Amino acid sequence: MDEAHWAALAATLTLLGLVWTYVSYRRRGAIAAMRALGFTTLPVAAWLTGTLEMFTEIAGSVTDWATGLVFNPITWTGIGLAGFGVVLIFISGYLRDRQLGRVRDGTAAPKPPLPEAQSTRAPASGPAVDDDLADIEAILKRRGIT
């Protein structure tokens, strides 16, 4: 397309935007009209900066990709696998949150005690604990944290 076609496209989009601005002003007031007017100026700005053609090429490329996608079973297999992966990620996050919530609430299932190893050594005395750590341990025990 030549420059006249791009100018006509920009003018058409701007005129449609002006209609949208007027309708927005009548229905929702000045703030909505100001937003619509902001969007209305974008096609002319894109034409003046030369990016209007770039946007249409991007839209054409996406359209070509989408039409090729419809009839390609390998691509649909990839989309299915991507969806499956996303579902697994969300389910694992949900289950992890449930598990963390249960542990936080103190309702986690108790773990079975491990069998104690038989030893011929004399039992070792507990580690020496200073007064500050003893206070902290007492607070933790009162709150049910071990």
Walk me through this protein's architecture.
- The chain has two domains: 1-70, no CATH class; 72-106.
- It is built from five helices and no strands.
- Helix content is 76%, strand content 0%.
- The longest helix is centred in the middle third of the chain and has 33 residues, at 73-105.
- Helix 1 packs antiparallel against helix 2 (30-49).
- By secondary structure, the chain is an all-alpha fold.
- The mean pLDDT is 83.
Query: In total, how many domains does the architecture comprise?
Result: 2
Order of helices and strands: HHHHH
Number of strand segments? 0
In terms of DSSP E residues, the strand content is under 5%
Task: Briefly note the structural class of the backbone.
Answer: mainly alpha
Q: With helices defined by DSSP (H or I, 4 residues minimum), what is the helix count?
A: 5
Helix content: over 70%
Pick out the low-confidence regions: none
Mean model confidence by pLDDT: 83
Radius of gyration: 34 Å
For the largest beta-sheet, the strand count, sense and barrel status come to: none
Shape: elongated
Distance between the termini: 75 Å
Features:
146 residues, mainly alpha, 2 domains, 76% helix, 0% strand
Topology of this structure?
Elements: H1 3-28, H2 30-49, H3 51-70, H4 73-105, H5 131-142
Helix pairs in contact: 1-2
